[in-house]
Amino acid sequence: MTFKLETLKLRGDTPGVTTELNFYRIGPADAPEKVYLQAALHADEQPGTMVLHHLLPMLRTADDQGLLQARFVVIPMANPFGMSNFVQRRHLGRSDIASGVNYNRQWPDLFAMIRTQLAGRLGDDERFNVNLIRKAVAQWIDAQQPRTAPEQLRLFLLKEAHDAEFVLDLHCDSDSLLHIFTSPELMPELQDLADWMGAAAVLTAADSGGGSFDEVLPLLYRKVAQANPGKPVPMPSATATLEYRGAADSFDHFGEQDALRLFGFLAGRGLIAADPGPTPERLCSATPFEATDLVKVDRPGLLAYRVDLGQRIRKGDAVADLIALDGPDAFLGRTPILAGTDGLVLSRTLRKYVTRGEGIAKIVGTTPLPTRRGYLLED
Q1: Could you tell me if residue 103 is left (phi over 0), alpha (psi between -120 and 50 degrees) or otherwise beta?
Q2: Which CATH class is domain 289-364?
Q3: Mean pLDDT of residues grouped by 10 in the chain (379 residues)?
Q4: In terms of CATH, what superfamily is 3-284?
Q5: Cβ-based neighbour number of residue 226 at 10 Å
Q6: With a threshold of 0.70, does the pTM exceed it?
Q7: 197: Cβ contacts below 8 Å, ≥ 6 apart
Q8: CATH 2.40.50.100 location in the chain
Q9: 20 to 30 A from 82, CA-CA: which of 67, 91, 205, 324?
C-alpha cells in the first residue's frame, strides 16, 4: 500500500528560480493497470483541483483498506508555472506569458518521434505491440534535453501518462454544464464515465487541430495502426478531458459530489474493490465535435443572453443580443446573435463585454456543420 506525496523540482529559465510540482503516487506499485489524473493544466481553471482535493482522501482510505487494484498518479495542480501568471492581480493561467502558447496546445506528435524505432518491429500480439510502443515513447522522453522550464514540465507529464490505461485531464469552461472531450474510438467505451460524471454532452474528434493533451495518445496509436495494416494495435489508453462546469464553480459541494461520482466510475471499472452503487441515469450520447456550433460575434459589444444553460434551441434562434458600444446606434442598438444549429446550450462566456470574433456559446448539435473543419477548438 502506498500513499505518497512527491515533489518534482523544475529548474527555471531565469537565475535563482526553481518551481515545485507536487503530486501523489497511490496504490500498489505492481498493480497491472495505471490511472493518471491531472487538473489545472490551464492554471486558471480550479474546479478540477477541487474535485481531486475531495478524491484524494477517498483514495487514501481505499489504499489503507487494501482496496486499490490499480496504481494511481494524481496531479491536482499540473501547471505550477501558470499559477504564477498574474498581471495586475488578474490570473492569466491559460497560456505561457513568455511564448503565448496555450498550455493545452501543441503537445508533440509522438508517432513522428518514434516511427523509425517501430519500423518492422510490430508483431501479431496486441500486448507485445503496446509494450513496444510504450517503451519507445519512454526512451524518446528520456533522450530529450528540454530547452525551457515548460518543456521540462510537459515531458514529465507525458512520461507519467503515456503508460496509463486511464488518462483523465480535468478542466472547466467559462460558464458551462458538465461535458467531456474524447476520441471517437473510445466511445461507447467511455459512456460509463459520462454517465457517472453526469455529463450533458460528450464531444468526439479524432484530431481537433490543436495538439491537446488528451489527443496525444489516441493520435499515436491511431497513426501506428494506420502505418502497420494487419498488425493488432489497440487503443490501450482511455483518455478524456473532463470539463467540470465553469470557472466560477469551484465549490466544496460540487467537488465532493464530483469526486464521489469519479470514485464510482473507478470502482465500476474494477480499479477499486468497492461497491460503486447504481450507475447514474444517462444524460447524453456522444456527438461529433464538428456538430457543435461555436457561436461567435462579428463586432464588439455588450452581451445580453436570451438563453440559459441546458436550454434546447433551434437554428436561427437568438442566443443573445449584442448591445452596440459605438457607431450611430451606440448604447441603443441591439443585434441578435443567432444559433447555427439545433441543439443544447452547453456553455456561455462569463465575460459579457466581448470583442469581434470572440466565441460566446457552444450549441451541441448532432449533424456536422460545413463550417466546422480543421481547427475545432477555442483558443
Answers
A1: alpha
A2: mainly beta
A3: 95 94 97 98 98 98 98 98 94 94 97 97 98 98 96 98 98 98 98 98 97 98 97 98 98 98 98 96 97 97 98 98 97 98 98 97 98 93
A4: Zn peptidases (3.40.630.10)
A5: 10
A6: yes
A7: 178, 180, 242, 258, 261, 262, 265
A8: 289-364
A9: 205
